[in-house]
Amino acid sequence: MNSQWIYVNGQFVNKNEAVISVYDHGFLYGDGVFEGIRVYSGNVFQLKEHLDRLYASAHSIRLTIPYSKEELTQIIVNTVRKNELSSAYIRVVISRGEGDLGLDPRNCSNPSVIVIAEALSIYSQDLYENGLKLVSVATRRNRPDVLSPQIKSLNYLNNILVKLESTQSGADEALMLNDQGYVTEGSADNIFIVKNGVIITPPVYLGALEGITRNVIIDVARNLNYQIEERPFTTHDVYIADEVFLTGTAAEVIPVIEVDGRPIQNGKPGEITKHLLHTFRDLVTTAGIQCYPKQGNELDA
Ligand code: PMP
């Protein structure tokens, strides 16, 4: 791609000119919300679900997004089209906007709205085929009564701190526990284990984001007649699981082959994980909001 167009506060600007104020409270205080969304073969996957979560996060922090969901849908689709992308990762950021150096959001009059779409693959093909290594970290997941993991806010320091810990110990991804020691999620993905044919994921109230991929995989697994349960588990349950995998918009469905130095079974991606990954990959290319409609069904440019 020669040029990349970023949507910034009402207009498309070139990447080099896509700037926001240093007084933006998103920058100064992490005051804002965001979503990461995928486009597969020109289809924006689960856009309604991502927008519902974005508006819920914004509502929770009393931030009014200055567009309706329909308008924001159009902006997202237009950003994909403007960049002529077929498969892409989209980042939507709504920050409190420009204010003064004080914390008070009342001094910020206009939220900033940014949409970035670019071709991106977070994990290498090798990790999808051979699996990744997890390490449980000392840093605990934010308690829901301190900062709810359901708010997908610009405050990702908790996640960044666990990422730093996992990188430091040579693992590919972190496993976060809550203050009771129960497994919650990865730094940016949800976790599932498989034991005796049953697929298990922690309930979100333990301290995990209610991932959209997580919910899709729960549906996919049910449709494939797997037994699926949401219940608490510990690192011990992870170590002795038959299979472990992570889900996320960026991660999709990715096998885990080692946790805290313990191989998961024979240290190879499991059959149920592979089945779910293949079914997920088939689904994503056929479902979603089309960015490039057939003639006669044009969206507004
Ligand atoms: N947990 C966290 C902390 C995340 O940031 C993400 C990525 N959004 C996920 C889980 C996975 O959620 P989703 O499937 O909606 O991308």
TrEMBL record:
Pfam families in UniProt: Aminotran_4
Co-factor(s): pyridoxal 5'-phosphate
Pathway: Amino-acid biosynthesis; L-isoleucine biosynthesis; L-isoleucine from 2-oxobutanoate: step 4/4; Amino-acid biosynthesis; L-valine biosynthesis; L-valine from pyruvate: step 4/4; Amino-acid biosynthesis; L-leucine biosynthesis; L-leucine from 3-methyl-2-oxobutanoate: step 4/4
Keyword Iron-sulfur set for record: no
Tagged with keyword Transferase: yes
SUPFAM superfamilies: D-aminoacid aminotransferase-like PLP-dependent enzymes (SSF56752)
Molecular function terms, GO-annotated: branched-chain-amino-acid transaminase activity
Catalytic activity: L-leucine + 2-oxoglutarate = 4-methyl-2-oxopentanoate + L-glutamate; L-isoleucine + 2-oxoglutarate = (S)-3-methyl-2-oxopentanoate + L-glutamate; L-valine + 2-oxoglutarate = 3-methyl-2-oxobutanoate + L-glutamate
Keywords on record: Amino-acid biosynthesis, Aminotransferase, Branched-chain amino acid biosynthesis, Pyridoxal phosphate, Transferase
Coiled-coil segments on the chain, per record: none
Purpose of the protein: Acts on leucine, isoleucine and valine.
NCBIfam families: ilvE_I, PRK06606.1, PRK08320.1
Protein name per the record: Branched-chain-amino-acid aminotransferase
Organism, scientific name: Virgibacillus alimentarius
